[in-house]
Amino acid sequence: MKYDIVVIGAGIAGLTAAIYGKRAGKNVLVLESRTYGGQIVNTPSIENYPAAMGISGFEFATKIYEQAITLGAEIKFENVMSITDGKIKTVHTNQNDYQSPVVIIATGSKNRQLGLPNEEKLLGKGISYCATCDGAFFKNKVVAVIGGGNTAVEDALYLAGVAQKVYVIHRRNQFSAESVMVEQLQKQPNVEFIFDAQVTELIGEQKLSAININTNNQARIINIDGLFVAVGRVPENEKFANVVTLDQHGYIIAGENCETSAPGIFTAGDCRTKEIRQLVTAAGDGAVAANHAIQYLNQLNQD
Ligand code: NAP
């Protein structure tokens, strides 16, 4: 099956690229292994995207998804396994092969794990990476959130409205989250902050029952029903390492023009090297990557 542009990833960057590609009259396929929207679908309320204040991440993503479909983008839920490079590239999924002169990689990132023994085993049995997905299971229970960024503070705020008590455990004594959210969290009566603390052990056999933390070189056991891990995100680009250059952390190396080391392969959003990973920069990247892709296609057609 042949397309002008194949976009890998139906997050905000990928869907925006599809919208720009379609508006330029190109034949666009978007491939997504999970659900559309990416990371933003877990955000209960968007507060920092111009003109979208207060709408949920899922609603926001749905609007962009519907916009891409209305414009004629084809979206298939298949898992991309690899790309074979060439003047015409082949994108191999778990179900099909797709050919196009241009590929835009917009695969975002996945949750970083704590890397502790028991973490995999207790996933879904007290450990979660998504407060809005799993918070309701912990109504009137005791939970902890690990991390100090926007996700951790947003998760803790959400959980404060559901759980009986929320511990927020951070390895520094200051949050990197936006101060407006931190101030809101500080006002919650059922939130206790534990700073300069590192989780060292996840305790529980069939389900999580407690965590061991190290704070000021002292061990402390905290009994909890649920643990929300919000310690950042890591890219998922290993499968593209044979066609584009990655940096030492696994991000696709690209500048503001979203061009990778491979002619005809562009990248957009959180999966590329960049300073600020936000909804608005993901959407911006989608537009930039699509425009450079369109220029590249038009040039190919002239040659
Ligand atoms: P993040 O900003 O990278 O923060 C990760 C946090 O986890 C940091 O506090 C970090 O501490 C801590 N951490 C990292 N590894 C750890 C470990 N092994 N053990 C304990 N703590 C660890 O990640 P994020 O909060 O998921 O945000 C990701 C991106 O999405 C950011 O750009 C963020 O702004 C954006 N985001 C935006 C919104 C919003 O605007 N509403 C909401 C959610 C996310 P150190 O500081 O010590 O490294």
Give a structural overview.
With 303 residues, the chain is of the alpha/beta class. The chain has 2 domains: 5-110 and 233-302, FAD/NAD(P)-binding domain; 127-229, FAD/NAD(P)-binding domain (3-Layer(bba) Sandwich). The protein has 6 helices and 18 strands. A 5-stranded parallel β-sheet has the order 3-2-1-7-18, covered by helices on one side. A 5-stranded parallel β-sheet has the order 9-16-10-11-12, with helices on one face. Strand 10 (142-146), helix 4 and strand 11 form a beta-alpha-beta unit. Helix 1 (12-23) packs parallel to helix 2 (57-70) and helix 4 packs parallel to helix 5 (179-186). The radius of gyration is 21 Å and the shape is elongated. It starts with a strand and ends with a helix. The model has no long low-confidence stretch (mean pLDDT 96). Bound molecules: NADP nicotinamide-adenine-dinucleotide phosphate (NAP).
